[in-house]
Design goal:
By secondary structure, this protein is α/β, with parallel strands linked by helices. The chain contains 18 helices and 26 strands.
Length: 561
């Protein structure tokens, strides 16, 4: 076993060279040009997500696609269900419409998603934790015509329904297929009326919106990143799956399907590579390995915070009683990397990418140092410091990616943000990276005023806006402080109106229902004033450096008492 690291590094280097060569833009462009010249149009463009499902259903209808709790669903079954939903949805929507999906992880989410794709409409997966203003913003800015909403989340939608003039129809998803007892339209009734329906006779417009994935709003209001039918990237996802996975894999995810990681990097990758998806309802550290074992998982994707959380679970005899061999991680803390591998008997591969990152991807397949996100798979990039100069080795700099062709990022109905994203031919990601002397990259954080807690980017502006609605609050500042889990905890300094008092526990209760649970401040401190510059800007750097003090209210500590 002493030569294992050397073998692993050599394998990583070989795989890196292979995938970088195959992903090179020139190679793909040449293939597409030859296809067009030969008039083999089926190979002249990427298959859409709906076409991908239909083609696999035609070739291997009995192959298993999805494992969820006690259910096993084949590709053919999901394709038939999606056809039935599509037939019903066609009665409610027209070409150019966007369809919202407000639903936790369950097979019904995927039925609706693929139905939308088969009709050439725009799918808008919505974060299930959104409430109030943040939920209304996503649904109104996307101009969703139809919303498929899980029965448990109907109240969240109804609370903002009056603010959504474009929303014409609501379809309730009920996993137990219960009769609503009224004239409420349900997914089951829609599906039942069209059971056995033929595939929709629709050829999606290549320029139409296929998918809107909303950012977390780290620099203001959340923005919808546009995926059009001409750029599904299914071939690239399939190529990456060949590099990472072996025959017989079962891809497990308990991350939410409304995020790109579970929807694209797990579900679409699994479909493209012929592997089943083992879907968990949500991440629960205490039950994680038991669920992965029960579903037969061999690999999963992990956000950085998941790994230290799992490491903090009590050690037990079943730590290696599972079939997982590979973990594809995003921002695994360096200190947790080797302990996690050693304890659970897995191998970590580190990757970097962003929904609005222009397709820039890095991989550390074992050829880079522990803690590194590896090297880019292609494309020119720069690391730029605050003065606009090239960052020196070891110095953090904002990642700029050369923007050309498909690397251009588009925000839905936000031309200003779209234009601002790319300047002078460079796409500015907002992410801070550093580079070592050998060219390996390391993720540092976000340049913008934001926090990242348990895999979710949190806008300080959103937190401050919610706190500011409290009638006794004069002003406030929200920022991140280091978490023992490797990311941030949300802290807020609150200044009350003169003559009034604010009790932290009541402020927390006020924020529940106004902020997603992950954005609720863990730390709250009441202060007489905020430190400011001469231009009246709050000096958050000073507040963050001071951090938690003896006057700070810690809600997690209070909950444990």
């Amino acid at each position: 076993m002493t030569n294992a690291p050397t073998t692993r590094t050599a394998l990583g280097r070989a795989l890196y060279r292979t995938v970088r060569a195959e992903l090179a833009e020139g190679t793909l462009a040449a293939t597409l040009r030859k296809s067009v010249q030969a008039r083999t149009l089926a190979f002249a463009r990427e298959p859409t997500f709906g076409e991908l499902l239909a083609s696999h259903a035609a070739r291997r209808p009995t192959a298993e696609l999805l494992r969820f709790e006690g259910r096993r669903i084949t590709i053919g079954e999901l394709d038939q269900q999606a056809n039935a939903v599509a037939a019903g949805l066609a009665e409610l929507a027209r070409q150019g419409d966007n369809i919202a999906i407000l639903c936790p992880n369950c097979p019904e989410f995927l039925e609706v998603f693929f139905a939308v794709q088969k009709l050439g409409l725009g799918a808008v997966p919505v974060n299930t934790a959104l409430v109030g203003d943040s939920l209304a913003h996503v649904l109104s800015s996307s101009r969703a015509r139809v919303a498929f909403v899980h029965r448990d989340l109907v109240g969240q939608l109804e609370a903002v329904r009056s603010r959504l003039p474009d929303l014409s129809h609501v379809v309730v998803i009920d996993e137990r297929d219960r009769s609503p007892g009224d004239d409420t339209q349900t997914l089951e009734s829609l599906r039942a009326r069209h059971r056995g329906a033929a595939p929709p006779a629709v050829q999606p417009d290549p320029e139409a919106v296929a998918l809107l994935l909303y950012t977390s709003g780290t620099t203001g209001a959340a923005k919808g990143v546009v995926y059009r039918y001409r750029d599904s990237s299914t071939k690239r996802l399939q190529l990456l799956s060949r590099v990472l996975y072996e025959p017989g894999e079962v891809l497990y995810t308990c991350l939410p399907l409304f995020h790109a990681n579970a929807l694209l990097l797990t579900t679409i990758v699994a479909l493209a590579s012929g592997a089943p998806v083992a879907l968990g309802r949500r991440f629960r550290a205490s039950a994680f390995w038991a669920e992965a074992r029960a579903l037969g998982a061999t690999t999963f994707n992990a956000l950085g915070a998941m790994i230290p959380i799992l490491l903090k679970q009590p050690p037990g005899p079943d730590d290696r009683a599972h079939g997982v061999r590979l973990v594809v991680s995003a921002a695994c803390p360096e200190a947790s990397w080797r302990p996690f591998e050693d304890r659970f008997g897995v191998r970590i591969v580190e990757a970097y990418g962003a929904v609005d990152g222009g397709g820039f991807v890095t991989l550390n397949l074992g050829d880079g140092p522990v803690g590194s996100i590896g090297k880019p798979l292609g494309g020119a990039y720069r690391l730029v410091d605050e003065e606009g100069r090239e960052a020196k080795p070891g110095q953090p700099g904002e990642l700029w990616v050369r923007a050309k062709g498909a690397q251009r990022v588009e925000y839905y109905r936000d031309e200003g943000a779209t234009l601002n994203k790319t300047r002078a031919g460079w796409l500015r990601t907002g992410d801070l990276l550093r580079r070592d002397a050998r060219g390996f990259l390391y993720f540092v954080g976000r340049r913008s005023d934001s926090m990242r807690r348990r895999g979710e980017n949190i806008s300080a502006h959103e937190v401050e806006s919610a706190i500011g609605k409290h009638p006794d609050v004069l002003e406030c500042a929200a920022f991140g402080v280091p978490s023992e889990l490797g990311e941030d905890e949300v802290m807020a300094i609150v200044v009350p109106i003169e003559g009034r008092a604010i009790e932290p526990g009541r402020l927390r209760a006020f924020l529940e229902g106004r902020l997603p649970a992950y954005a609720l401040p863990r730390f709250v401190e009441i202060a007489d004033q905020l430190p400011k510059t001469s231009t009246h800007r709050v000096q958050k750097g000073e507040l963050a450096r001071r951090g938690v003090t003896a006057r700070t209210w810690d809600f997690e500590k209070e909950a444990r008492r």
